[in-house]
Write a structure and sequence with these properties.
heterodimer; A: 323 residues; mainly alpha; two-stranded antiparallel sheet; 13 helices; 1% strand; globular; B: 296 residues; two-stranded antiparallel ribbon; 11 helices
Chain lengths: 323, 296
C-alpha cells in the first residue's frame, strides 16, 4: 500500500515542528494523568471520565476518520462490561484476563456487525448499527448471565496478576490511566499510519479510493472491528471500576451519549472526544440534582452543536489557529 | 378446543391480532419516515417522540379541556403537525445543504428534549386513556374474540395509509413531490414553491405520527417513553423495506407486526429480537431492502 499521507506536502521544518508539538502535548498529557488525583478531583469521577474518553475516541475512529456514524457502539461497550464482569465474578479468572475477555468479545462482535453494516453508507449505516445494537440489548435483557434489570453487581476489582492490589482507589486509578493511555496511543498511531490516511481518503472520496485499488470494504471492516475492540476495552474497564455492569451500558441512549461527546468535542480531531467526554461527564455529575432535566439539557446541547458549531470545541480551536 | 400446530387456535389468532395492531402502528410510522426521507432527505429520529406527543396531547385535551377521543383524532395531529412545521422552519431547513448525518443528530437531540420534558412532568409510569364508548366491547367471531377498538385501529390506519399512498402516487401534488425528490431545481424552475412543499410534507408526516399516537392511546398506556423502543423497530422496518417505496413501508410494517405476533406464540423469547434478525438476513441477501431500489 502506498503512503498517501498529507505530511508529504509539509516541508521538513514544519514536519519537525509538528512532531515537537506532538511530543510536548504527549508529555503534558501524561503529566496531567499522573497528577490529576492530587488536584482534589474525585478519583471515581476521573476514572469514569477516562473510560468514557477512551470510548469516545474509539467511536471517533469511525465517525471522524471514516465518516460513518455508528449509532450502536453501546452494544460493544455494554457487552464487554457484562463479559468482563461475569468472567471476573463467576469464573474468577482475574481482572486482566476478564478485561481481555470483554475486549475480545467486543472485537468479534465488531467484526460481525461491521461485515453486515458496512454494505450501507451514511444514515442507513447509522440505522443498521442502531438496530443491531438493539438486538444485543434485548439479548442482554433476557440472557440469564446478565441478570436482566438487576445487572451484574459486586464485581470484585481483584489484582493485576496477584501483584498489584486494585482495591486501593489510587492504584485502581493508575491502572485505568495506563489502559486509557495505551488505548489512546494505539488510536493515535492508527490515525497517523498509512491505514489511517487511507481511512481519511475513504471519508473524503470513496469512489476515488476504489478506483485507486484500495480494498475499501476490507479497510472499513477493519476500522470498525478496531473501533469496537477499543470500545470494548473501555466498557470492560468501566465494569471493573464501578464493579457493576447494567442495562444502561448497552441501551441506545449510551450510543447517543458517545455521539454527543464526539460532536461537542470535535469529530475527526484526536483530542476532541476526550474534551467532549469531559464536558458531558462533568455536566451529568454536577447536574445530577436536576433529575431527568439532564436529558433535556443534553438534547439542547445536541441541537445547539448541530445548528451553530458543527466542528466542536477542539475543531473550532484548530480552525481558529490555522487562520 | 381447536389446535393449530400444537397451539390453541384462540391464542394463535389473538397473537396474530396483536401483531396486526402493532403492524398498523409500524406501518403508519414507517410511512411517515419514508415520506420525510423521500422529500427532505432527513431521517427523523424524533418520530417516536412525536408519536408519543400525539398520544399525550390527546390525553391532555381530555383531562384539561374535556375534549374527547373523536375531536382529538383530528386536533392532536394538527397541533403536533404545527409543532413539526415550526421545527422544520427554524432548524431542519438550515441543514439541507449539509451531510445527512446532521439531520439525524438534530432530530435525535429534539427527541431527547421532547421526551425529557414529558418525563419531568408526568414520570414514566403512564396514564390510562379510555376508548370512546361506541368502540368498547367486542364481537365473538367463533374462532376468537375481536375487541371493537382493535378492529377500528386496523381499519383506520389502513385507510390513512391507503389515502397517503393515493395522495403521493395518484395526485398532481404527489407528482410534484416525486419530481422534487428527483430534481429539486427543475421543479423550482416550474414555479413551484419547493421550500413550502418541504415544510408541509414534514408537517403532514409528523401529523401522521401523532395520529398513530392518538390511535395508540387507548391500546397502550400514555407514557413519555412509549415511542422510544418503537422507533428503533420502525427504523429496522424501514431498512428491511428499503426506502424506495411508500407501499413497501406499509407492507413491511404490517408484515413485521404479524411475524412478531407469530414468534410470540411459538418462541416468545425471540419476539423482541426477531425483527432485527430479519433485518440482518435481508441486508445480507438484498442490501437495498425488499422494495428498495439501488441507491447512492
Amino acid at each position: 500500500m502506498t503512503d498517501t499521507t498529507s505530511n508529504v506536502e509539509l516541508s521538513d521544518d514544519t514536519f519537525r515542528r509538528h512532531r515537537l508539538a506532538g511530543y510536548l502535548i504527549a508529555a503534558v498529557g501524561i503529566a496531567a494523568l499522573a497528577v490529576a488525583p492530587f488536584l482534589g478531583i474525585y478519583p471515581i469521577f476521573l476514572m469514569k471520565l477516562l473510560c468514557f474518553a477512551l470510548f469516545a475516541c474509539s467511536f471517533n475512529l469511525m465517525l471522524g476518520y471514516v465518516g460513518l456514524l455508528s449509532f450502536g457502539h453501546a452494544a460493544f461497550f455494554g457487552m464487554a462490561a457484562y463479559v468482563a464482569g461475569h468472567a471476573v465474578k463467576v469464573w474468577g479468572i482475574g481482572t486482566v484476563f476478564g478485561i481481555a475477555a470483554g475486549t475480545l468479545t467486543a472485537g468479534v462482535m465488531g467484526l460481525v456487525f461491521g461485515a453486515i453494516a458496512i454494505r450501507q453508507k451514511g444514515i442507513y449505516f447509522a440505522m443498521i448499527t442502531l438496530a443491531l445494537a438493539q438486538m444485543v440489548f434485548f439479548f442482554c435483557l433476557q440472557a440469564p448471565f446478565t441478570h436482566g434489570e438487576d445487572g451484574i453487581q459486586g464485581i470484585p476489582r481483584g489484582t493485576v496478576f496477584g501483584l498489584v492490589d486494585l482495591r486501593d482507589t489510587l492504584t485502581m486509578y493508575y491502572f485505568v490511566a495506563v489502559i486509557f493511555a495505551a488505548g489512546f496511543f494505539v488510536l493515535y498511531r492508527t490515525v497517523h499510519s498509512p491505514f489511517g490516511q487511507a481511512l481519511k481518503g475513504i471519508r473524503e472520496n470513496e469512489p476515488r479510493m476504489i478506483s485507486l485499488g484500495y480494498p475499501v470494504a476490507l479497510l472499513k471492516v477493519l476500522a470498525f472491528t478496531m473501533s469496537a475492540t477499543i470500545t470494548g476495552l473501555a466498557g470492560a474497564t468501566k465494569a471493573i471500576v464501578f464493579q457493576s455492569a447494567t442495562l444502561t451500558d448497552v441501551n441506545w441512549h449510551m450510543s447517543g451519549e458517545v455521539v454527543l461527546m464526539t460532536l461537542i468535542g470535535g469529530m475527526g480531531t484526536i483530542l476532541g472526544p476526550v474534551v467532549g467526554a469531559g464536558i458531558v461527564i462533568a455536566l451529568q455529575n454536577y447536574l445530577s440534582t436536576i433529575g431527568s432535566w439532564v436529558t433535556v439539557v443534553m438534547g439542547a446541547i445536541f441541537v445547539i452543536c448541530v445548528l451553530t458549531f458543527r466542528r466542536g470545541i477542539v475543531g473550532e480551536i484548530l480552525a481558529w489557529m490555522r487562520r | 378446543m381447536q389446535e393449530i400446530l400444537g397451539v390453541p387456535a384462540p391464542l394463535l389468532f389473538g397473537q396474530l391480532l396483536i401483531g396486526l395492531i402493532n403492524g398498523s402502528f409500524y406501518a403508519l410510522l414507517s410511512l411517515g419516515l419514508a415520506v420525510i426521507f423521500g422529500v427532505l432527505n432527513v431521517i427523523n429520529f424524533a418520530h417516536g417522540a412525536l408519536y408519543m406527543m400525539g398520544a399525550f396531547v390527546a390525553w391532555l385535551l381530555l383531562h384539561h379541556l374535556g375534549i374527547g377521543y373523536w375531536p382529538s383524532l383530528i386536533v392532536a395531529p394538527l397541533i403536533v403537525g404545527v409543532f413539526g412545521i415550526v421545527i422544520e422552519r427554524t432548524m431542519l431547513s438550515r441543514l439541507y445543504d449539509l451531510d445527512h448525518l446532521y439531520g439525524l443528530l438534530l432530530t435525535f437531540g429534539l427527541a431527547l428534549i421532547i421526551e425529557g420534558t414529558f418525563i419531568n412532568f408526568y414520570g414514566v409510569s403512564g396514564q390510562p386513556y379510555a376508548p370512546p364508548e361506541i368502540l368498547t366491547g367486542g364481537h365473538n367471531l367463533g374462532f376468537m374474540f375481536l375487541p371493537t377498538y382493535r378492529a377500528w385501529v386496523i381499519v383506520a390506519s389502513l385507510l390513512v395509509c391507503l389515502g397517503t399512498w393515493l395522495l403521493v402516487e395518484r395526485t398532481r401534488l404527489g407528482a410534484y413531490l416525486r419530481a422534487a425528490v428527483e430534481n429539486r431545481e427543475l421543479v423550482r424552475a416550474f414555479g413551484i414553491n419547493v421550500p413550502l412543499m418541504m415544510t408541509l410534507t414534514y408537517g403532514f408526516a409528523v401529523a401522521l405520527a401523532a395520529f398513530a399516537g392518538v390511535l395508540a392511546a387507548p391500546v397502550y398506556t400514555v407514557s413519555p417513553i412509549m415511542g422510544q423502543h418503537l422507533i428503533i423497530v420502525v427504523f429496522a422496518i424501514v431498512v428491511i423495506g428499503g426506502l424506495g417505496s411508500i407501499l413497501g413501508s406499509i407492507l413491511t410494517g404490517l408484515g413485521i407486526g404479524v411475524v412478531e405476533g407469530l414468534t410470540k406464540t411459538f418462541y416468545p423469547e425471540a419476539s423482541s429480537t426477531v425483527v432485527f434478525v430479519i433485518m440482518a438476513i435481508v441486508l445480507i441477501l438484498r442490501p437495498n431492502g425488499l422494495f428498495g431500489r439501488p441507491r447512492e
